[in-house]
Write a structure and sequence with these properties.
Elements lengths: L8 H7 L7 H4 L9 H23 L30 H37 L1 H16 L2 H11 L5 H11 L2 H14 L3 H8 L4 H9 L4 H24 L10 H10 L2 H4 L2 H29 L3 H4 L20 H7 L13 E2 L7 E12 L6 E12 L3 E5 L6 H8 L7 E11 L4 E4 L5 H7 L4 E4 L3 H4 L6 H12 L5 H14 L16 H12 L6 E5 L7 H18 L2 E5 L3 H7 L2 E6 L2 E7 H7 L3 H8 L49 E2 L13 H4 L6 H8 L1 E2 L14 H9 L4
Parallel strand pairs: 4-9, 4-10, 7-8, 8-9
Antiparallel strand pairs: 1-6, 2-3, 2-5, 5-6, 10-11, 11-13, 12-13
Helix pairs in contact: 3-4, 3-14, 4-5, 4-7, 4-8, 4-11, 4-12, 4-14, 5-8, 6-7, 9-10, 11-12, 11-14, 12-14, 20-21, 22-23, 24-25
């Protein structure tokens, strides 16, 4: 899934505020670079910079001068000891620090300047210049850097610092240029660039005053990364003896230590200082780089890099994890410390299932006979996956969502079942057995919900920032005001809304922005599970697409699991890993999204799919499902779908079908063998999906299925390729 394209000015304004053009604010982005990482990194780098500048002035000892003090350990006379020739290692380290820092920073300046020139021109000019400059960039990217540096160094006169700087600058610019080109492609399409162009500003003025300031943090990050690479490259070339070994650098010291057998002689003081200096400078520059990365993208402060199964993030770095999950983690299996129920230990198979819904039943007690809105529902939500729940209005989808989060109020009540939550350590608790106090801590900290109809779910008289704060303060009453403000800003940026919209009221936002606010509220306390109850209802298809892509992006980045409820199967097929279809309060089919789309088993599921038009191929008449969903107060006997099913027979009115595996049912009709049989016994992904598909239909029950119905039904299910 690619990142969402900017479709409307409304969304673009919400996600990325336009930068100010005046000189006072153009460089204001760097005013916030005060993170501990950046401070620590600068302290380390500045220390070595001062040594490089002041060291040769204060230390007058010749680093190449030999003496009779051979291989002496560090002492007051020789602070870092001496070499095999009696040379003072402290003087060598001072000279080497100056040389290494000089080469690293000068080479990085030249390399970064070259990457800015190539990257920004290619991205802004496009067309022919982009093709030519990108071709040159790609050539340098595919050539291994170190071998190229070795070859170039051999053809340059001498092998001193100047030659090394030239080699590093020529071989190290391509990656940064490629990154800047991609960023410039994005920036040049924004409205403030068009306004500058229309006002008559020249190309280089626009690049210098509008594009470069918006990429200063990225340029700085690339620069410090290049400094690290330059220092390491010089050290590597010197250690291999490919540079002037009489010119002191950290790599040269290591070269002489290795050549003289310092390790065998036990002269640890000969090689440790130089290696430690390289490691410390690299650490300092890396800390600066990481801090800049976090500042450029605030989501990286809390979520790490976007990977398929990332570490658990935190919205604020200083906050402590709260909620029932911490109570579960502090409790031992079998006891009740901190919880009102014994904590169980999950089996190896159960550890991957974060929420196990077991035989859940929800009744509406409005008369002498309860109405079963959710009837014997069993589902499993796997960790890090998306479970979609589909069905017509009145099928029990929203009732199930409220049951999972225990938000029902009378006359609704959960009359049976279990909701087993498994934390990452494999400890299990039943959500239905939690007390009210435990449930308050558990909700939103580990299980949250994004309600349908954001306009109704948001308080119309409170600003959205205040509503985000309410969620946080309700669970963490002691949070500091400054931290609270920062967390609200982080949450809004997380869902692509500018932080300055925290002071807006719900009616001042578009429908898509309101739904993003609902997602931000659901993610306020970093839950493990998010239940989304028709979050795209009443939104147009463009905004639906943006919301779906944002949900996928956040799920992959933050690693939470999703129960996504909707009546729109097209959304579920694209978004979900697994789809469950509900009808009259029961789950009638569960299958992987791909297998459901290719080959839905239940006649009701097939009818839902057939009600959507095809986007390609020949036109066909849409086939809807005849009739209406049943009245839950008067559900037909046997199969609730039998009054609308084209394959109904006598047994359908006498037996309530249970969920059973559907694989192999076609063999008896001879229409299509299972995928495993088609591959000579090896189980393919398709076969595995077929094995995991279950449907509540008597057509798949070998004991109750009447003879002669297989072929006609299988022809419908196989149908045309979707």
């Amino acid at each position: 899934m690619t990142s969402a394209q900017v479709i409307s000015a409304d969304v673009e304004t919400a996600s990325e505020p336009q930068p100010a053009r005046d000189g006072n604010r153009r460089f204001a982005a760097f005013s916030g670079l005060k993170s501990p990482k950046i401070v620590a990194g600068f302290v380390i780098v500045i220390f070595f910079g001062l040594v490089a500048i002041l060291g040769p002035v204060l230390v007058r000892t010749d680093p190449s001068q030999v003496s009779n003090s051979v291989l002496e350990a560090p002492s007051f006379a020789h602070l870092l000891g001496t070499t095999q020739s009696g040379q003072d290692l402290f003087a060598q380290m001072i000279a080497a620090t100056q040389s290494s820092m000089y080469v690293g920073f000068v080479a990085a300046i030249l390399s970064t300047a070259l990457s800015i020139l190539v990257g920004l021109l290619a991205g802004y000019l496009g067309g022919f210049w982009d093709e030519v400059l990108s071709l040159i960039t790609n050539i340098f990217l595919v050539i291994p850097g170190l071998p190229l540096a070795v070859i170039m160094l051999g053809y340059l006169p001498g092998a001193g610092s100047l030659s090394i700087i030239v080699v590093i600058a020529i071989t190290g610019w391509a990656w940064s240029a490629r990154l800047l080109r991609a960023q410039t492609f994005s920036i040049r399409k924004r409205e403030f660039i068009s306004a500058a162009r229309l006002s008559g500003e020249g190309t280089f003025r626009i690049i210098a005053l509008d594009i470069v300031p918006n990429q200063l943090a990225i340029i700085a990050s690339s620069f410090f990364g290049t400094v690290i690479a330059a220092i390491l490259t010089q050290a590597g070339l010197a250690f291999l003896g490919l540079t002037n070994v009489t010119e002191w650098s950290w790599g040269t010291i290591l070269y002489w230590a290795q050549s003289s057998g310092a390790l065998l002689l036990g002269a640890w003081w000969w090689y440790i200082p130089a290696g430690l200096a390289i490691a410390l400078v690299g650490t300092g520059l890396s800390l600066i780089n990481f801090g800049i990365d976090e500042f450029v993208n605030p989501r990286l402060r809390v979520a790490g890099l976007g990977t398929r199964k990332p570490r658990r993030p935190e919205v604020a770095p200083t906050r402590r994890r709260r909620g029932a999950a911490s109570l579960v983690a502090e409790s031992e299996p079998g006891d009740t410390r901190g919880l009102s129920q014994p904590v169980r230990t999950a089996t190896a198979e159960e550890r991957d299932v974060i929420l196990d819904i077991r035989h859940l039943q929800v009744d509406y007690v409005t008369g002498p006979t309860p109405i079963k809105a959710v009837n014997d529902v069993s589902l499993r939500l796997k960790r890090g996956s998306v479970l979609g729940i589909a069905g017509e209005s009145g099928s029990g989808k929203s009732t199930l969502a409220y049951a999972i989060t225990r938000l029902h109020k009378p006359p609704a009540e959960i009359s049976a079942g279990e909701l087993v939550y498994t934390d990452r350590d494999g400890k299990q608790v039943d959500i239905l057995k939690m007390t009210d106090a435990e449930l308050r801590k558990f909700r939103w900290a580990d299980l949250s919900i994004a309600f349908q109809s954001a306009m109704n779910a948001l308080n119309p008289i409170l600003r959205i920032g205040a509503q985000l704060k309410d969620v946080i303060v309700a669970h963490e009453p002691g949070v500091a005001k400054a931290d609270l403000e920062n967390r609200v800003k982080d949450l809004l940026q997380l869902v692509g809304i500018s932080p300055d919209r925290a002071n807006a009221y719900p009616h001042e936002l578009s429908g898509g922005m309101r739904q993003r606010v609902m997602i931000a509220i659901a993610l306020a306390l970093n839950p493990e599970i998010v239940v989304m109850d028709e979050p795209t209802t009443a939104l147009d298809v463009v905004i639906q697409r943006q919301i779906i892509e944002k949900i996928i992006e956040l799920k992959d980045r933050l690693g939470f699991s999703v129960i996504f409820i909707t009546h729109d199967l097209s959304l579920l097929v694209e978004l979900c890993d697994e789809i469950a279809v509900m009808y009259a309060g029961r789950v009638i089919e569960v299958a992987s999204a791909s297998n459901f789309y290719r080959d839905a088993k239940h006649p009701y599921s097939q009818g839902l799919l057939n009600s959507f038009p095809k986007l390609s191929g020949p036109k066909r008449e849409l086939v809807g499902i005849p009739g209406s969903p049943p009245d839950l107060r008067q559900i037909p006997s046997g199969c609730a779908f039998r009054t609308r099913c084209p394959f109904v027979y006598e047994a359908c009115s006498q037996h309530v079908p249970a969920l059973i595996p559907t694989i192999g049912m076609r063999d008896s009709a001879g229409s299509k063998p299972p995928a495993q049989a088609r591959t000579g016994g090896a189980e393919t992904p398709e076969a595995r999906e077929e094995r995991q598909t279950v449907a509540a239909c008597l057509l798949y029950d070998p004991q109750l299925r009447p003879a002669g119905t297989d072929t006609e039904h299988d022809q419908l299910l196989v149908g045309e390729e979707r």
